[in-house]
Write a structure and sequence with these properties.
The complex is a heterotrimer of chains A (291), B (320) and C (261). With 291 residues, chain A is mostly helical. Chain A has helices spanning 2-30, 37-55, 59-82, 90-111, 138-160, 162-172, 174-179, 184-210, 217-231, 237-257, 262-276, and strands at residues 127-130, 134-137. Chain A has a two-stranded antiparallel sheet. The relative contact order of chain A is 0.20. By secondary structure, chain B is mainly alpha-helical. Chain B has a domain at 25-236. In chain B, helix 7 (154-177) crosses helix 8, helix 8 (179-196) runs antiparallel to helix 9 and helix 10 crosses helix 11 (256-271). The chains are: A mainly alpha (291), B mainly alpha (320), C alpha/beta (261). At the A-B interface, helix 4, helix 9 and helix 11 of A face helix 5, helix 10 and helix 12 of B.
Chain lengths: 291, 320, 261
């Protein structure tokens, strides 16, 4: 029972972490909460559903194409709703992001439908017994492995590649990075592409795991992933991974006892973190009063 | 009061009394009632968001608190409706305090997301506290108010709600034109500076939430006794987002702007009937477009706080 | 008589000792200048007095009463008002409204009063009257209805000072009031600061880079460097102190010359 909850928690947590990375990368560079990210993730799940339908049981091509399509969607969202507001106050950008979130989720409802759709089978399901009462299936293993591989790749990208370094520089100090010859437009586009493509991957994985895709799935998942991002300290990539896992595990254990309030637990964690630890558990000081 | 002002007021009053008399369609009466209810509701958010700059995404919770409080008190305890609504206003004010107090330190989008979380938790309680709220089934058959044994019909309800709306509007204008409104706007523009100038900002931020909550509670109480059926579905984050769009569309910080926003966003989807399905999409598109092209809103003239900041010119002798 | 006393006042941010063991006094009715190179901790000292930061160690007393634990609005209502180095006027308000905000500590208006017609009118007129008086003093009355952002830089600085004066404080803390002013404006400022001091009887503490201003107005100078007090005393003496000359000129010759101009 405990082992099973732990497995489910780690599973769910690794997906939260993938989505949380999108929030945290954008926050790092642009310093605002991209409310639309949860809905980009939802679109990722729909892209995956269509791709899986046409390509059949080929996991890797579906994953890669989903990530590319979702990445492009993320860049489009940035171009339409945030780019004209590059120098506007944060309140304005946040509102625009909120509007974009509503647009994306309602477009999905109007264009595709408000039903819950099954994900076409990418793999046949096999169960593996782990001890007397814990079961793990190959889809869960695949979800976990994919999430870990993507995070390792991201780590490499951010720390080693040219664009990754530019993103890190822009997160530290946008103005200086700009003066040093970093093209901010490109950095922002790459940030949105990478963050959104990870969200898309999460969409595919969640769709496979629950065998369900629907137009409002971005809302709760987005909020929870955001919670994960602040748990680990928003703007910090390892923090988002850690926060995702922690939230997934906490939610699973607490949810086992209070099933009706399962979502409420995540929200409660969110509020508590915002109130008492807005800089995350490792407390990056972002709220020092400055005069 | 000048003679001209007086004639204007008299004319307005005559119009308000006469117009409903000529409205024959039930549907038109219904729309006017909804506009007035949303007008009161959005004035509350105007005080929280427009005047004080507190990005609240949980306004539907105050609305729901008002509706449920009055409905439950009247249905369960047999309280008179008028008392129920008064207590609904108080309850929503208390909820404003409960939300405002812990979130004092949060700013901008952090506050937005925290209030969103509060709203969600409020919704979950409505759904899950079955024994009190009837859960997702909601509360049907809420009584309409009556006076001298006559139950209010739509036209009478319209008179009542318009009267309340005018009172609410007058109160909002009075707040905005007083030291209280100035203090709210000072907090919105620069809360640290305001504190150094002797403003007890915690007190005023909580007060903004309490006053905003009370407006929403009033709207909620009358909403419950008008539609006679409420359920958790009537008070979701989508409603909070719609209210936000009303405020920004009309012009945050202008008092009258958000009311205009409410008129537009209540009527628009109804007038273009194919849009009912598209309502939320329209809300989202409006939010993005307004932010890009007219962040000060339709009625906003001098709302500099939402305009794009000019790059600060470095001056000799200035450091940091 | 000392109206404001620092007793080993210190504040540390992480490992940085922004203000370190500063002990000194501000004399009532005098003009005291705080000088020192950039990053010496001058503004931080203001922030400590006004309650923005909490002291790590030591104490600051106003009329013998500790202000170390008070929040900014409480310090203000005791009678210590300040301006900001980077002008912080409320951008959506007029000059008059900007100044009216600052009358809270003095008038302590009641919220429910706004719904009582007589009270509402009285409070508003009180606030307006107080603000207009200060505007006359600063020669800003014709600009009362302007949006703060429509004013020139020098005028905005004056509005800041007006905002500090309107609550009739005992101590006025001015954070680089001459920054960004031209020579003529700076001269007027000197005159005006003495006027605040002599005619209104205010105790003035001013952070200043412009040595001409400092020399002209100061009764006393406190010199900070790297968060520590390196000298204080009567102005001519302090400015000739070799330690001060070294710290000040040695660190930032360029800025000093830029100001002397």
């Amino acid at each position: 029972m405990i082992l099973q909850q732990l497995i489910n928690g780690i599973m769910l947590g690794s997906v939260y972490a993938l989505i949380a990375l999108g929030y945290t990368m954008v926050y790092g560079v642009m310093k605002f909460i991209n409310f639309a990210h949860g809905d980009v993730y939802m679109w990722g799940a729909f892209f995956a559903m269509f791709l899986a339908h046409f390509l059949g049981g080929q996991f890797l091509p579906v994953l890669i194409l989903t990530m590319i399509l979702t990445g492009i969607l993320g860049v489009l969202v940035e171009r339409v709703a945030y780019k004209p507001l590059r120098r506007a106050p944060r309140l304005v950008v946040t509102t625009s992001a909120l509007g974009m979130s509503i647009v994306l989720s309602n477009l999905a409802r109007l264009l595709i439908g408000s039903a819950t759709y099954p994900m076409p089978k990418v793999l046949a399901v096999h169960d593996f017994k782990l001890g007397p009462s814990a079961v793990i299936n190959n889809i869960q293993i695949l979800v976990l492995v994919t999430a870990v591989v993507l995070m390792v790749l991201l780590n490499w990208f951010v720390n080693r590649s040219r664009y990754g370094k530019a993103i890190r520089a822009a997160s530290e100090d946008q103005e200086t990075a700009g003066l040093m010859g970093v093209n901010m437009d490109n950095v922002v586009s790459v940030t949105f592409f990478v963050g959104s493509s990870l969200g898309g991957a999460a969409g595919l994985l969640v769709g496979m795991y629950y065998d369900a895709v629907y137009s409002t799935m971005g809302y709760a998942a987005g909020l929870k992933a955001f919670t994960a991002a602040i748990l680990g300290g928003i703007g910090s990539i390892p923090g988002a991974m850690f926060g995702g896992l922690l939230l997934g595990i906490v939610e699973n254990f607490a949810g086992a006892f209070l099933s009706n309030y399962r979502d409420g637990i995540a929200f409660l964690v969110m509020i508590l973190v915002l109130l008492f630890r807005p800089g995350g558990l490792f407390n990056a000081k972002i709220y020092q009063k400055r005069v | 009061m000048s003679k001209k002002r007086l004639t204007q007021y008299v004319l307005l009053a005559v119009l308000l009394v006469l117009v409903p008399q000529f409205v024959r369609s039930d549907y038109a009466l219904h729309l006017m009632i909804m506009v007035a209810i949303y007008g009161i509701l959005v004035l509350g958010l105007e005080i929280i968001l427009g005047q004080t700059g507190l990005f609240s995404l949980g306004h539907a919770a105050f609305f729901g608190m008002g509706s449920y409080t009055s409905a439950l008190l009247v249905m369960r305890l047999g309280m008179p409706i008028w008392l129920g609504i008064v207590l609904a206003v108080l309850a929503s004010g208390i909820l404003g305090f409960l939300l405002g107090f812990p979130t004092l330190r949060l700013r901008g989008d952090y506050l937005a997301i925290a209030t969103l979380g509060f709203g969600e938790i409020f919704g979950l309680i409505l759904v899950n506290w079955d024994s009190l709220t009837h859960g997702p089934m909601g509360i049907p058959g809420i009584t309409r108010p009556e006076i001298f044994g006559v139950v209010f019909d739509k036209r009478m309800y319209l008179y009542l709600i318009v009267l309340l709306f005018i009172l609410a509007l007058a109160a909002a204008f009075r707040i905005s034109n007083s030291f209280l409104g100035r203090t709210f706007r000072a907090i919105r523009d620069d809360e640290d500076a305001a504190e150094f100038l002797g403003i007890h900002i915690s007190k005023y931020k909580i007060l903004a939430f309490i006053i905003g909550g009370m407006f929403a509670g009033l709207a909620g109480g009358f909403y419950a006794h008008y539609v006679t059926f409420i359920s958790p579905d009537s008070f979701t984050y989508e409603d909070s987002e719609t209210l936000l769009a009303m405020v920004f569309l009309g012009g945050a910080g202008t008092v009258i702007g958000p009311v205009v926003g409410a008129v537009v966003l209540v009527l628009l989807p109804e007038l273009l009937s194919f849009m009912v399905q598209w309502r939320m999409l329209v809300v989202g598109v409006i939010m993005v477009l307004v932010m890009i092209f007219r962040p000060q809103g339709l009625m906003g003239g001098g709302m500099k706080f939402l305009k794009i900041k000019k790059k600060e010119v470095a001056r000799i002798g200035e450091k940091e | 008589m000392a109206i404001l006393e620092f007793e080993r006042a210190s504040v540390h941010f992480g490992g940085v000792r922004a203000v370190d063991h500063v002990s000194s006094e501000i004399e009532q009715g005098k003009i005291t200048s705080i000088i020192g190179p950039n990053g010496a901790g001058k503004t931080t000292l203001f922030n400590l007095i006004t309650g923005a930061y909490k002291l790590t160690q030591g104490d600051i007393r106003f009329r013998g009463q500790s202000v170390a634990r008070l929040s900014p609005h409480m310090v203000h209502s005791l009678g210590i008002a300040r301006t900001f180095q980077n002008i912080r006027l409320f951008s959506s308000m007029t000059v008059l409204e900007n100044i009216m905000i600052s009358t809270h500590s003095k008038l302590k208006p009641k919220v429910l009063g706004i719904f009582i017609p007589g009270t509402f009118k009285r409070v508003e007129e009180n606030m307006k009257g107080m603000a207009e008086k200060v505007l006359v003093l600063l020669d800003l009355l014709p600009k009362a209805g302007y949006h703060a952002s429509a004013l020139s830089y020098g005028e905005q600085r004056r509005v800041e000072i007006a905002r500090a004066l309107v609550s009739d404080p005992e101590i006025v803390l001015l954070d680089e009031p001459s920054a960004g002013m031209n020579v003529r404006e700076a001269k007027e400022l000197i005159k005006f600061i003495s006027q605040i001091n002599k005619d209104l009887g205010k105790t003035v503490v001013v952070i200043e880079h412009n040595m001409r201003v400092v020399r002209h107005i100061s009764d006393k100078i406190i010199v900070l460097d790297h968060g520590c007090k390196i000298a204080d005393g009567v102005s001519e003496e302090v400015l000739r102190n070799p330690k001060v000359v070294e710290a000040y000129l040695g660190h930032s010759r360029l800025t000093t010359y830029a100001h002397v101009r």
